[in-house]
Structure formats: structure tokens, C-alpha cells
Design goal:
Elements: H1 3-32, E1 54-59, E2 65-71, E3 80-85, H2 92-99, E4 108-112, H3 131-145, E5 152-158, H4 160-171, E6 178-181, H5 187-199, H6 206-218, H7 227-230, E7 238-243, H8 251-260, E8 266-271, H9 279-298
Helix pairs in contact: 1-6, 3-4
């Protein structure tokens, strides 16, 4: 094989690897925006916990129908309501399983499925950007149809839902308090962490290319909707909860987000032994007590 043939073979190999990387990034971007096949069924319902509830449908500004439950506080509807936002790849039932106990503490609970999740409409998720529209619709619905229940309102979000909760706290300063659990620092960071810790894909060149395809498909940059871009705007009491074994939201990222929050009243609880999405399971009764205490004191 002469020098020219070696060069041609080398060039072909480089181009082939580049094409493969682009193809992987392209298809990976589809997994990030959560196609319908990733939906998990709603396996947990209020009646399993002996809770009265109303099934509610409401519509987003871009025309999607979202499914939800309004659960009045045990003993009767009060003027205190917690809006609960689930994480990516799960649904309102999964969050109900971990937080239903709050209905016994005097709080109305409002759970809804984000777009492309659970029983809601839509086929594209965005790990927080489009989901802020869903929260806006939920908030408007409650203010219109449950005005008394919204006299004192708070928001609880887990993972992607925590990102939405922080954005909501910045947009709606009248919210009494915000709780953010397993909440990532930024859109770019969570994609990078997922790529490396879960699939062992290196940051360069895959993550920048994947994010470029995501932006192209969404028609917008989701980064401005990240917690890091909004947490400093929160003025109400804020509680951050994270696990020290979370690979999607490493402890350093969680501590950085906490440090960026300028709220006068803020706290952070690190649950030893908890991985991503497992804070309630690992925290047990202590989790229930701390979550209840936060909302009781601030709502």
C-alpha cells in the first residue's frame, strides 16, 4: 500500500467516524425529547390511598390537552394548594406515590402529567423548556377554577419538575414557597451527566452535537429555562433535596445550584444513600416529616 492509499484510507476512516458520531448524536437527540414509546403507564391513583379527587383536563397555550388530579385536603378543600411537577420519563402517579401524605396535612394537591407523559397529549418533551408552558396552563386553570384554593399556593418539583418549579418561582413571585428535589443545574449539564454516567458517551464531540440537534428540533434554545438561569430570581422560601448517590445530579451540581439561590430563607437537605429519584424511598418517615414541616411553615 503506497502513501496515497494510506492517506485515502485514513481520510475515509476519519469521515466514517465523523458520520457515525453525527448519526449517534442525531438519534440520541430523539431519545432526549422523549418519543411516545418511552411513556410509562399511570400505575398509582388517589383511590389507592383513600383520597377523594377530581380528574381534570386543561389545555396549554399551544393546544395540548393535559390530564390531572385535584385532590382536596383530607377533611375538605382548604386555601392551601401544592402544585406537584413530576420528572422526565415518569408521570403524576409516580409523584403521587411519594407525596400523597401531604393531603393529610391540610394541603390540596394538584398533580398533572406533562406533555408526552402519562395520559397527556403531545409527542415531544424537552426536559423543562416546553414543560414551563404546561405549568403556566396548570397555574391559570387553578387560578380561574379554584381561586379559593389558590389563596396560598406552592410548587414542588422533582428532577425535570424541579427545573420547572424553579422557573415558576421566578415567574410567579406570589407563590409562597418552592421545593426542588433532584434538580439539575442546567440543561447542558444534565445531558452531559446522563451521556457519561449512564451511557459512557464522552462530552466532546457528542454532547454539543446532540444539543445542537435538540435546539433544531425544538426551534429554540432550552438553556435559558435552566435552573441556573432562574434560581437567583427566587425570593420566597426554597428547599432543595438531593441524594449523595445521584449520578444525574451530582452533589457538586446540587450544591452549586443551592449557592446560586439568593432567597433569604433557603435550606438544603442531602439524603445519604439516595440515588436519582429515590429520595422519598430512602428518606422514609424523616422525608415525610421534613417535607411536611417545610410546607407547614411556609404555606
Amino acid at each position: 500500500m503506497n502513501a496515497m492509499e494510506i492517506f485515502n484510507w485514513f481520510l475515509f476512516s476519519v469521515l466514517a467516524m465523523a458520520a457515525l458520531a453525527v448519526a449517534i448524536a442525531y438519534f440520541k437527540s430523539y431519545s432526549i425529547i422523549q418519543p411516545p414509546k418511552r411513556r410509562t403507564p399511570v400505575n398509582f391513583h388517589p383511590d389507592q390511598y383513600n383520597l377523594a379527587y377530581e380528574t381534570v383536563n386543561f389545555t396549554t397555550a399551544d393546544g395540548l390537552t393535559l390530564k390531572s388530579w385535584f385532590i382536596p385536603a383530607v377533611g375538605g378543600e382548604t386555601e392551601k394548594t401544592i402544585i406537584l411537577c413530576h420528572g422526565w420519563g415518569v408521570n403524576r402517579g409516580d409523584l403521587l406515590r411519594d407525596t400523597h401524605f401531604l393531603a393529610e396535612k391540610g394541603f390540596n394537591l394538584f398533580y398533572f402529567d406533562f406533555r408526552a407523559s402519562g395520559e397527556s397529549g403531545g409527542s415531544i418533551s424537552s426536559v423543562g423548556y416546553l414543560e414551563t408552558r404546561d405549568f403556566d396552563a396548570a397555574y391559570d386553570f387553578l387560578k380561574t377554577h379554584r381561586p379559593r384554593a389558590m389563596e396560598h399556593a406552592a410548587v414542588f418539583g422533582s428532577s425535570m419538575g424541579g427545573s420547572v418549579a424553579i422557573f415558576a418561582g421566578a415567574k410567579y413571585p406570589e407563590l409562597k414557597c418552592v421545593m426542588a428535589e433532584n434538580t439539575f443545574l442546567s440543561y447542558r449539564r444534565v445531558i452531559a451527566n446522563w451521556s457519561w454516567f449512564r451511557t459512557k458517551v464522552p462530552y466532546y464531540p457528542m454532547v454539543p452535537m446532540t444539543l445542537a440537534f435538540v435546539k433544531l428540533k425544538l426551534g429554540a434554545d432550552p438553556e435559558p429555562f435552566s435552573p441556573a438561569q432562574n434560581v437567583d430570581k427566587l425570593k420566597m422560601p426554597v428547599m432543595f433535596i438531593c441524594g449523595d448517590r445521584d449520578d444525574i445530579v451530582p452533589l457538586h451540581d446540587a450544591e452549586t445550584l443551592y449557592g446560586m439561590c439568593r432567597a433569604e430563607k433557603k435550606q438544603m437537605w442531602i439524603i445519604t444513600g439516595a440515588s436519582h429519584g429515590k429520595c422519598a424511598e430512602v428518606g422514609g418517615e424523616i422525608y415525610k416529616n421534613k417535607v411536611t414541616q417545610f410546607f407547614t411553615e411556609n404555606l
